[in-house]
Amino acid sequence: MEQLDIPLMRAAFTIRQGLDENPPWKTVPEAVHQIAAVQIDTISVVARSHHLTLRNRIRKYRPEQVWTALREGKVFEHFAHACCVVPIEEYPYYRHRMHRFPAYSNTWEKNLFTKHKDLMDGVEDRIRKEGPLSSKDFDNPSKKKRGGFWDWKPAKVALDLLWQTGRLAVADRIGFQRVYDLPDRVIPSQYLDRHVDQDEVWRHFLERNLDCLVASTATDLSNYISFGNFALDIKGNRKKTLEEKLQIFIHDDLVTQVEIPKAKTPYYVLTRNLPFIHKIQDRRSTSDRVWFLNPFDNILWNRTRVQSLFDFEVKLEAYTPPAQRQFGYYVTPILWQHQLIGRLDPKADRTSSTLIIQNLELTLPRKQQPEVIPHIQQELERFQGFHALEKIQINKTTPRELKTKLSSNG
């Protein structure tokens, strides 16, 4: 049986994800195609997460590029891992999830769908007649301040439900607000009119996840592009269902089971990716480039996998009460030579044009830290430049002397 080790798996995974030397891709559609999806998130303590994910993978990336690609029909928006931009050519596979909603949803979503059915018909009809509209184009019968999804105005809920069922598509984002239109006015006809069957859907997403993760357990495979997209009726648990499908791929020589020392569960690799892994194994040299990974970066989607693969604990503390945070609001892991070596908590203060590093911690052994310090400084300067800020302010570091060393390298 083929044998891999953890360092090789880390290297293969990060290189496949575009995090090795310099950003490898030139456009949003190219990057999104390579990593399958980019998660969209609202938090903007620095740039929003999708911009940070793409910044690390696209040369000379500019924030307007992602929404330009959306407007031009080169990517579309739907649930992949979470709410993501995904390759436009994969629209036919995602349609199965749309058509299965809300039948395969929870009771709350089914009730919501029933409650707003008439309103959904009216909202869809208005967009058909008037063209692209956003939530702000519909009256709000309540004047109270709005909060989470459960407190959205009815028309906004209807728009979201229409989008989830595929009756509407996101045509644009303006000021981060979705603009909706009919799919036949958003999705290019070669993808809108293409139909795939259920067997093609699960095969597509299983192969997609295997490719993006390079080497993975059966459990990993339901935590990249989410299991809900596989168009599978679960008989038992997800892991068992995926293991059954993996056996079909193994029988067809599409997948090879590999052995990882001390691993308690099997790992699987696309057979066609074995030469790629062997090539990495032969070179083993790595770039000194440092990467700051936002909390919603694809590398970090599966925290259990991060723990086992990188021996690193990832915590999203943005939604944790301040008094209970252990590190900071926007915990941003630091990647270097295919290892997670620390974390920082950045904030862009636009008023003073300052990139504030509220906390920075290196978990790398002390004897290795001097080697990485200048590369962290370089990434801080690149990060500052991306946000068009004039200064860098470092408030706290671990170890304490790191603050002085970073400042002296600036």
Give a verbal description of the structure.
- The model is unreliable at 145-151 (pLDDT under 50).
- This protein has two domains: 1-101 and 165-283, no CATH class; 293-409, no CATH class.
- Strands 10, 11, 12, 13, 14 and 15 form a six-stranded mixed β-sheet that branches.
- Helix 1 packs across helix 12 (274-283), helix 7 (117-130) crosses helix 8 and helix 14 (369-386) crosses helix 15.
- It has 15 helices and 15 strands.
- The termini are far apart.
- It is α+β, with helices and mostly antiparallel strands and 410 residues long.
- The radius of gyration is 22 Å and the shape is globular.
List the topology elements:
Blueprint: H1 6-16, H2 28-35, E1 38-39, H3 49-55, H4 64-71, E2 75-79, E3 83-87, H5 91-100, H6 107-115, H7 117-130, E4 133-134, H8 154-164, E5 169-174, E6 177-181, H9 189-192, H10 198-213, E7 215-216, H11 238-251, E8 255-258, E9 267-270, H12 274-283, E10 290-292, H13 303-310, E11 332-336, E12 339-349, E13 354-362, H14 369-386, E14 391-394, E15 397-398, H15 402-409
Parallel strand pairs: 13-14, 13-15
Antiparallel strand pairs: 1-3, 2-3, 4-6, 5-6, 7-9, 8-9, 10-11, 11-12, 12-13
Tally of structural domains = 2
Described by its quaternary structure, the protein is single chain
- Poorly predicted sequence stretches spanning 5 or more consecutive residues: 145-151
Q: Tell me about the biggest sheet? A: 6 strands, mixed
Please tell me how large the radius of gyration is: 22 Å
Proportion of helical residues: 25-40%
What would you call the structural class? alpha+beta
Give the topology string: H per helix, E per strand.
Answer: HHEHHEEHHHEHEEHHEHEEHEHEEEHEEH
Straight-line distance between termini: 49 Å
